[in-house]
Here is the input.
Amino acid sequence: MRLDELTAAEVPGLRAVSPTPDPVELTGLAYDSRHVQAGTLFFCVAGYRRDGHDFAAGAVAAGAAGLVVERPLGLGVPELLVESSRAAMGPIAARFYGEPTSELRVVGVTGTNGKTTTTHLVRALLEAGGERCGLLGTVESQVAGIRRPATRTTPEAIDLQADFRAMLDGGERYCAMEVSSHALALGRADAVCFSAAVFTNLTQDHLDFHDTMEDYFQAKRLLFVPGTPAAKSAVVNAATGGSTGEVAGAGAAPGVAVVNLDDPYGRRLAAELDDVVTFALDADADYCARDVRTDLAGSHFELQTPAGARTLSLPLPGRFNVSNALGALAATHALGADLDTLVAALERGVRVPGRVEPVEEGQGFAVLVDYAHTPDSLRNVLSTAHEVGHGRVICVFGAGGDRDRGKRPLMGEIGARLADVLLVTSDNPRSEDPEAIIAEIMAGASSAPRPPGAPPVAAEVDRRVAIERAVALAERGDVLVIAGKGHEQGQELAGGVKVPFDDVTVAREALRTGTRVG
Here is the structure.
């Protein structure tokens, strides 16, 4: 595509193009100067630690054919002067890749908890109906049949649009994707035409990025109510300290909006929307689950839908997973999938790595690895452990460094109140002192009432040792929950160091080498 063809389109906040470009053929787009090749259009994005404008000269030296800038640089190549380089990325990338989501039907899932499970379920349900569906999320991406580890929940706008194009070219007609609040606030999802959007819930998390829960909600709301550029700017500036200037709106509202009425923020969002599709376990909604029973093998309930009722056995334990299944079913059914095909697919089951993932080595107790890393998700998984087990609930968890500190004592209180045996340990300490993080968790734990006869909450900074101790303590009928890291394959330490670590592997090794009850 030629540069003048891009500038002929509506570019958010475009103020000038200088010098007036001769026809220049663009070969690619980049926001990282290390990825610039001959013919690349380079976006000078002002980040938290580095400013892309400082790398523009290097990009030109590497062959950049043009620059997207927020201030004139005069480096001898055409410059698109915009209010926000970040805001311009999505719409320009969408045009460069041929507006892929005008054909690809994208189902976006947002919320604090449940995004990963819901997107995996959406993909499985669509494929059960004969549709090919890509996947973008926290655990992995599946693009044109190729699986790869995910680097962030929602890719940057350029990478995202490139993935959409690759999906279409590879024969996929749907995409199930997680949409993070960061992505919405920073414009990564701008210019995506969502065929459907699902809101799972909103509970405390990411308050290191969003100042308040209201700011957090307003970011999530952008997926459903894109609003004006000024409204979008208010959300972005709240998250970034006001450094991004005026930005574009997030585009059109989704074709179908699917919202969880069990969640107070969901009820608030649904009240704003026209023609909303709702789901719930504990409220009246379009898609409901009644008489929910759950055990280690899964959940059983009566499904009520606009197309009739069904009895359903879901091979995923926990009420929260029933909610995830309802959201996925509501979205895919609203998009035209056959209800009986969807129910049969749910009953066949989908195993999501690190989401209530069982570890089985012949022991007489259950071991579950889960990504629960927020107060609400920890409460959910521990409550489920009580529902499905016959003995004690043992829990190992920590909290990530350089992230929302306010949730640490809340998680400590929940863990101490709901676990019969609690070991507080490290998660991904990053640049923080692991023992200082544990101390903040323990402060919350000390305020909680303990189950009758429960031992004092213990701390063990070494996560491997903590898991080994928990396995050694477990007895027949107990449920051991290892929470916080789930699918993650490494532990992030100071200085950006990442060492291999997998909760499932460590638990399996402890079960094989330790003394097993059963």
User: Anything to note?
Assistant: The CA atoms of residues 210 and 216 lie 6 Å apart.
